[in-house]
Every structure is written in C-alpha cells, then in structure tokens.
Design brief:
It comes from Pongo abelii (Sumatran orangutan). With 423 residues, the protein is α+β, with helices and mostly antiparallel strands. Helix content is 11%, strand content 22%. It is built from 7 helices and 23 strands.
Length: 423
C-alpha cells in the first residue's frame, strides 16, 4: 500500500469525483477522473483512497463534509492518497448495463443504447445444422455454454462406411479421410430466451442475433468425402456386407461400385445434386430443407434474409439491430459513416449514432462538476443548466437544494439563508 501526497493548483474544477464516506461505512476514494484534468495530470488514479484533505484526516468525514472541504480549497488543494495497485497507463472504460433512467436526458428524443454483434452467415466447415435463427438474449449475462448443435454434429457426422472384399489382383482403392471432429465452441455471453424482446426495458430497442428460421429438424452439413463408399456390396449405414445391395434413392436402380450415403439413403455420386441448380454436390457440403437438398450458394440465395436498407440478400456477414437484419456496411453512424459493428450506439430522430459522435453532438454535462450525466444518473434542470442531484447545492454553505426553495445570483444557486450574500 503506497501513500503519497498530491497538490493541485486552483481554481476548480479539480477533475475528479469522490465516492464513499463515513456515512456510507466505506473509505473515501476517487470514483472518476476527467481525462486530461488536473487530477489526472498529477497522477491521481481511479480507486485511490483519500487519506487526508488539506491536511485533515479524511477517515472521519462524511461524503458531503469531504465535498465541502474540497470546495473550500480555493486556489490550492492538497490530498493525501493511498494506492493498492500500480497506476495503469489509461483508465479502463467499463461499460455497465444501462439501467432505466428516472427521466430522459433529452426530453424530445428517444435515446436508446443498443448493443449489436455480427455473425458470419457463411457455412462453417463441420458445423452441426442447417442454419436456423435463434434469439440470443440476456445482454448483461456472462453465461457460456456448449452449442447443442455442435454436440448433435459429433454424433450424426460419424457416417459409417462399408468396405466390400476386393479381389486380390485388383488395385488398392483410395482411402477417403473422414471429417475432422469440430472443436467445442462457446456462444457469446447470452442465453437463449425467446421472451427477451418483451422483457427488455420499454424505452430501449433491443439488438439480437439470430440464424435463419428452419421449420424442419436441423440436418448436419454433410461432406462428400466422408460418405463416399468404396464397395459395391455394402449397405447404407452398415459396417459389413450382409448380402443386401444398395439402391439409389434418386433413380431407384441397384448401385454397382462407389456410392454415397446421405440423410439415410444411398445415391450414385453423379445423382446426388442440388435441387435448384442441378450441380453435383462436391466436398463443400450441402443443406437439407423440407426434404430438398441444396448447395451452399443456392441455399443462401433462397433462404438468406434481406437487408433493411438496400433490400438485397445477405449472404455474408449479417447484423441484427432494431429488430431488422442489415449488411454490416449498411448499418453505419449517421455522423462519421463508419460501420457500428460491435460497438454501442444511440438512436436520435430515428438514425443511429456511434457513442463518440452522440456524446459530441447531443451529450449533456453537469454544470456543477463538469462531468457527463450518464444514463441512469439522477439529475435535475435548474437555472437553464443540468445538474447531478448531489451537485445542486448552495454556493455558500453547500447544502443540497434538491426539492427546496432556492435563489439565484450569477447563475449560482443560493439557499434561503444566503439569498442576499455576496457570491
């Protein structure tokens, strides 16, 4: 625990905010710093304990007494601080879930903080389903879990192959490698919850990630290399020759030679084709939808969603925001025109803004401490300015004036007792 002393030259603002106090049974500490402010330039860090203020022990001070003590230091503020950890080069910005504010910051605007994520629409090699939309919720959760579709793949992708005894004089046939078992993956930190949109705060618009909806049971993405059979007398799904001859599910003829096994049926390799374009399905895999088989390009064109802005099909990376689907390059900040992607954004007059541009154009600061009024902060408006509820105090005695009668002199509030005092 390192103790040190910092001297800040006035006048205010000093560039920091306090938390704790004797009345909270928590030691006084620095809760926030103004970037580039006096405290930050002097080496003060968020989390530093305040041991003394202007030479007076801070351990016996309540929160309001500590504030008044700091305000009383006009041109010079001396702080005794204690630090448990080394100062980081930059304070980490922690995004916490927004709680519903008591009142909107901008009365005529629908300020909504949204989180979005992107997801690759291209078929992943070895993934375990024909794509299906799933609503992902609990934006504030931290639960990770194994994708059930991956477990389904591990069981269903192991297609047995049969080998018929070949004559001794025949040439050894090529061994086809089986599919590589997919490595376990983790979902993002959200849990599946179809009722999320109804439970979400009414003054915010949710952003969710989904996959294309499939009414049929998802079928694993098959690889031709894993299901080509090298024998003429084997049976689909069987490991030995039991005397039965495979019959092609497409032409209903007996198969002599190599054949495919897919979806529980045997096929001639040249007759296992896409239902839409007629292309022979190669090693790239296929998708099954309502009994029909599609190659990945045809499946994307037929079942991929449309972009809410350009109305074109989305076959690559896809983004879900405002209960609609978008190309990543179509959902951009209205000010800087950059794709918002995984960042937080706000809605103002029906258009999205990235966090940086929104704060620059529409941000509200407290007139008392010069800090931004965040969503969820208690605040009030008086004298033509916005104030944190704890910052609206008498300029003389520092008594809190929220909900009380006050007077004004030089845009500074005064209590009833100091209404005629010089400011």
């Amino acid at each position: 625990m390192d103790s040190f002393k910092v001297v800040l030259e006035g006048p205010a603002p000093w560039g920091f905010r306090l938390q704790g106090g004797k009345d909270f049974n928590v030691p006084l500490s620095i809760s926030r710093l103004t970037p580039g402010g006096k405290a930050a330039q002097a080496g003060v860090a968020v989390g530093d304990w305040v041991l003394s203020i202007d030479g007076e022990n801070a351990g016996s001070l309540t929160h309001i007494e500590a504030q008044n003590k700091i305000r009383a230091c006009g041109e010079r503020l001396s702080l005794g601080l204690s630090r448990a950890q080394p100062v980081q080069s930059k304070p980490q910005k922690v995004q916490t879930p927004d709680k519903q504010p008591l009142r909107p910051l901008v009365p005529d605007a629908s300020k909504q903080r949204l989180m979005e994520n992107t997801e690759d629409w291209r078929p992943r090699p070895g993934t375990g389903q024909s794509r299906s939309f799933r609503i992902l919720a609990h934006l504030t959760g931290t639960e990770f879990m194994q994708d059930p579709d991956e477990e389904h793949l591990k069981k269903s992708s192991q297609v047995p192959r049969t080998e018929a005894p070949a004559p001794a004089s025949s040439t050894p046939q090529e061994t086809w490698p089986g599919p590589t078992a997919p490595s376990p993956t983790s979902r993002p930190p959200w849990a599946v919850d179809p009722a999320f949109a109804e439970r979400y705060a009414p003054d915010k618009t949710s952003t969710v990630l989904t996959r294309h909806s499939q009414p049929a049971t998802p079928t694993p993405l098959q690889s031709r290399t894993s299901i080509v059979q090298a024998a003429a007398g084997g049976v689909p799904g069987g490991g030995s020759n039991n005397g039965k001859t495979p019959v092609c599910h497409q032409c209903h003829k007996v198969i002599r030679g190599r054949y495919l096994v897919a979806l529980g049926h045997a096929y001639h390799p040249e007759e296992f084709v896409c239902s839409q374009c007629g292309k022979v399905l190669e090693e790239g895999g296929f998708f099954e939808e309502k009994g029909a088989i599609f190659c990945p390009p045809c499946y994307d064109v037929r079942y991929a969603p449309s972009c809410a802005k350009c109305k074109k099909k989305i076959t690559g990376e896809i983004m879900h925001a405002l209960k609609m689907t978008w190309h990543v390059h179509c959902f951009t900040c209205a000010a800087c025109k950059m794709p918002i992607r995984n960042r937080a954004f706000y809605m103002e007059e029906g258009v999205p803004y990235c966090e940086r541009d929104y704060e620059k154009m529409f941000g509200t600061k407290c007139h008392g401490c010069d800090f931004k009024i965040d969503a969820g902060d208690r605040f009030l408006e008086a004298l033509g300015f916005s104030w944190h509820d704890t910052c609206f105090v008498c300029a003389i005695c520092q008594i809190n004036l929220e909900g009380k009668t006050f007077y004004s002199k030089k845009d500074r509030p005064l209590c009833k007792s100091h209404a005629f005092s010089h400011v």
